[in-house]
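hey
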């Protein structure tokens, strides 16, 4: 099973769906990204459920920076999904492809 992000015309993720693995060539379909994109009328890109902070959780190769979520932006230059910027962000970490937010100390 693979996961796919559907993007609007501004490259914002509107939906994440579960679909066929990209190497599943059954039904004569050679590109599931194209298939799901046409079916939903949006651009479709594969996303990795195991990639967060530009690291693969099981030690594999990270794919597209972060697992896509609704509201994330696809950055074509980085070939990565970027989470929405939090209001308290102080910068962007290019290594992890995530926003930098200050640590918050909770009162006891």
């Amino acid at each position: 099973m693979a996961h796919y992000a559907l993007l609007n015309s501004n490259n914002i993720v509107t939906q994440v769906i579960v679909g066929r693995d990209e190497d599943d060539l059954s039904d004569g379909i050679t590109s599931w990204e194209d298939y799901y994109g046409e079916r939903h009328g949006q651009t479709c890109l594969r996303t990795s459920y195991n990639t967060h902070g530009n690291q693969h959780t099981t030690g594999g190769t990270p794919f597209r920076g972060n697992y896509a979520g609704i509201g994330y932006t696809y950055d074509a230059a980085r070939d990565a999904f970027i989470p929405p910027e939090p209001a308290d962000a102080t910068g962007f970490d290019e290594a992890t492809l995530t926003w930098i937010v200050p640590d918050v100390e909770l009162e006891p």
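Residues 68 and 81 are 6 Å apart (CA to CA). The mean pLDDT is 95.
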